[in-house]
Amino acid sequence: MKSRFNLPKMERGVKLLLQGMGIDINNEQFAETPQRVARLFIELLSPPASNWKTFPTDYRGIVLLRNHRVVGLCPHHLQPVLMKVHVAYIPKKRALGLSKLARAVEERLSMPVLQEELTQGVADSLDAHLEPTGLAVIISGEHGCMQTRGIESTGDVVTTVLRGVFLNVPAAREELFNTIGRP
Question: How far apart are CA 109 and CA 112, in angstroms?
Fold first, then answer.
């Protein structure tokens, strides 16, 4: 399978960036930096493939992946975003293999992505494959671009998508947040 990444072009880009910063790329300390940075981005943007195999179920409680940690890239600054993800659903007729909840998040990290779009995209994918009674995707992210420049905030940004009973039934929403613990 052919990679979508052009390693030589990525390495040339990093080399130009270093030169633009006035760095001598012949300095031994920076000699392999273009290759290292290119491999870093390839690794960050190569999530594992997911399959959406579902199983019939009579279970009607909350299925929750709590505190799943992922690293994304901000599309504006290419800075890392360290995220803690909670994905919950209440099955209607079908359940997803448990590891697939994590993969549903990670497969959307193949490109730099806004946290809001990641939250919405994970919810849309799960909704389409499961048609659950309730669905929640809650992500808190520590954005490198906010921490290292400009405002230099150490806070995290929280985005949520709540659907079905998690949106419309206060008791279900309260049970969800009590189970997660406030992000």
Answer: 7
